[in-house]
Amino acid sequence: MEILKVENLNKVYGEGGTKVIALNDVSFSVNKGEFVAIVGASGSGKSTLLHLIGGVDRPSSRKSLY
Questions:
Q1: Could you give the CA distance from residue 62 to residue 58 in angstroms, rounded to a whole number?
Q2: For residues 59 and 36, what is the distance between their CA atoms, to the nearest angstrom?
Q3: Which of 28, 35, 56, 63 might form a disulfide with 7, Cβ 3.0–4.6 angstroms?
Q4: Up-side HSE of residue 28: CA atoms within 13 Å toward CB?
Q5: Sheet of 64-65: strands edge to edge?
Q6: Region at 19 (left for phi over 0; alpha for psi -120 to 50; beta for the rest)
Q7: pLDDT in tens for each of the 66 residues of the chain?
Q8: pLDDT of residue 2
Q9: pTM of the model
Q10: Cβ contact 6:22 at 8 Å
């Protein structure tokens, strides 16, 4: 049973020459009972992903997020 599903999640900050792609087409799901770790280098989008999942920020585009 899925408790979290993210499909084609994107987040872009700025425009033109200052455009930064924080998340590019991220998709995954978490099932009940699973443990998940979000790891990566500094600036790779970990906090951005958590802010979007938690509703603190809004995605630039997505297929689904629930």
A1: 10
A2: 21
A3: 63
A4: 11
A5: 20-31, 2-13, 64-65
A6: beta
A7: 999 999 999 999 998 899 999 999 999 999 999 999 999 999 999 999 999 999 999 999 766 555
A8: 95
A9: 0.84
A10: no
